[in-house]
Amino acid sequence: MAPPLTRRLLLTAGAATAAATAIPIAAHANRGTFGRYGSPDDRLTPDTLYVDANGRGDHTTVQAAVNAAVPGATVVIAQGTYRELVQVPAAQTDLRFIGATNDPHDVVIVYDLAAGTLNPDGTTVGTAGSATVKLDAAGFTAHAITFANDWLRADHPGTSGTQAVACRVRGDRTAFYHCRFLGHQDTLYADSSAVTAAARQYYRRCHIEGDVDFIFGRGTAVFDRCEIHCVERDVTFTPKGMPWAPSTSREFEYGYLATGCRVTSAAGDAEYKLSRPWVPGSNTTAWPSLTIRDSWLGPGIDAAAPYTVMSSGYPWQDQRYAEYANIGPGAAIIDPTTRPRQLAEDEAAEHTTEAYLGDWTPQNEPDAPAPKTRDFTIWVAGDSTASTYAEWRSPRAGWGQALEVFTTRDVAVENRAWSGASSKSHTDKGVLDAIAAKIQPGDWLLISFGHNDSKIEDPNRGTDPYTTYQQYLRGYIDAARLHRANPVLVTSVERRRFKDGKPVETLGEYPEAMRALAEEEDVPLIDLQADSLGLWNRLGEEETKDYFLWIEAGHENYPDGIQDNTHFQAKGAIEVARLVAKAAARQQLMRGGLEGLHQNPDPDEITWPEEISEPPL
């Protein structure tokens, strides 16, 4: 196994994520150092300031811009790594940071202090003092920025205070869109200015990673469709850590809410807990609060005992912990006594973004469209009808395998469809994580499941159309959007089933559930079920045998012959891929990447590799 990336290497690794766009844009902004956000010669507003380490802005450091800004100002930060400490004092209200490229990997604010780091007078800086960025003002907003602390335990073996905060947040009405928070212990200090002052915070499609207590504090914070990532840690004991350590004041009605999040891990299975409550000595009446709902909890979470304690005097069972409708291996209820209260539907209505944030509505700010690029990759996530088959199984082929027949030379196809997969098993086995690790801004993710989701008798694959099926599909949508790629839902292709000479539907409620989700999430939909049903109707019952895997005895790969009414031979795979490509072209999806939609390609144009990895990681 390759060694884990260090924090410093991670600052430049990985794919990009999206930034929200309810931001003023200069009408004639140049596309130079500050992208579409203007320049010192063409400001968004008179109060906009520009930061560029190379001297092409108003300031070369972020802190210098903060010092010069008036309340309500916008600070546009050019691509670069800014190694500095930044503090936004309480008087600098309603300040906005914008990463000029809309890619948080490009704009990094980082420093390397830990709680045990010594001050010049011999005292230690403490946990709060270790923060790279300290946000004390109300109304702060950040778009597409990385906040990092790259202090590493291995570099300081004699230091006992290993808490190293990337960002400390204390101001009310603080929002982050498509930002990254990188650290190890105590990465994000989501706090408030006092034990009696609740600070509402909102994090949308952010990536937050660390090991021990890496989201902690007493703030009222909503984590909306965020990726919560547990890093690998070079220790022999477990748990290696936990994401959340809330210390909510007893006076606060709400603490932390994770909704629609994905909890992923680079460590081994069951090596992380979800949370432990923090009752600090400065506030021994704290009553920690955390609700996790509608989220995917990966195999890195110890489902058998997902919660633990920080102090024996404050057991997690006495705190305000709750869960609702979570999915994934880490969400399995093995022993109900080891998990907090599972909310009833009416109780869950009290744990929403709206309830936690009250009259403040940052969740209504729209996302930016993904970038349009000439060369991109089309990713396919699906089941055996789309998957790639090895040479020894030809002429069997999936439509994802045949899709490259209709793509231009500037476009690659990464087919991660997997035989036997459902939306659930494909996710739970780590294939979605593998896609998310490599997908790039401007790529396209085609999401097509349903055949195996309907196998409800199989607990590893079966899903319910309007609950868990849609929830797993949302995971693909959110993973794509987190990385500024374009999700597309594709209803499952129909089987070869005829009655009285007419093809019949066999997929139950799953296609309709996908259509409803596409409308709800505003995601493009390719209705392959309807289009394939139409194709089978035009071809008729006998001619469709030439498209499905109907092969007479004597074939070198099928000596006994085969009659398969679900899977395709090369001719059928090409025609189903054509349906997908034509539907995409009609909707102007993947523009510039498709060609030859009306030609008749030779089945030999399909590539059959020698071997296939299953699952396709």
From TrEMBL:
Pathway: Glycan metabolism; pectin degradation; 2-dehydro-3-deoxy-D-gluconate from pectin: step 1/5. Keywords: Aspartyl esterase, Hydrolase, Signal. It comes from Glycomyces rhizosphaerae. Belongs to the 'GDSL' lipolytic enzyme family. Residues 51-356 form the Pectinesterase catalytic domain. Residues 602-617 have a biased composition (Acidic residues). This is Pectinesterase. Gene3D superfamilies: SGNH hydrolase (3.40.50.1110), Single-stranded right-handed beta-helix, Pectin lyase-like (2.160.20.10). The lineage of its organism: Bacteria, Bacillati, Actinomycetota, Actinomycetes, Glycomycetales. PROSITE patterns: PECTINESTERASE_2, TAT. The keyword Zinc does not apply. It is an enzyme of class 3 (hydrolase). Residues 1-29 form the signal peptide. It catalyses: [(1->4)-alpha-D-galacturonosyl methyl ester](n) + n H2O = [(1->4)-alpha-D-galacturonosyl](n) + n methanol + n H(+). Residues 593-617 are annotated as: Disordered. InterPro entries: Pectin_lyas_fold, Pectin_lyase_fold/virulence, Pectinesterase_Asp_AS, Pectinesterase_cat, RhgT-like, SGNH_hydro, SGNH_hydro_sf, TAT_signal. Residues 381-572 form the SGNH hydrolase-type esterase domain. Pfam families: Lipase_GDSL_2, Pectinesterase. It comes from the Bacteria. Its EC number is 3.1.1.11. The active site is at D213. Transmembrane segments: none annotated.
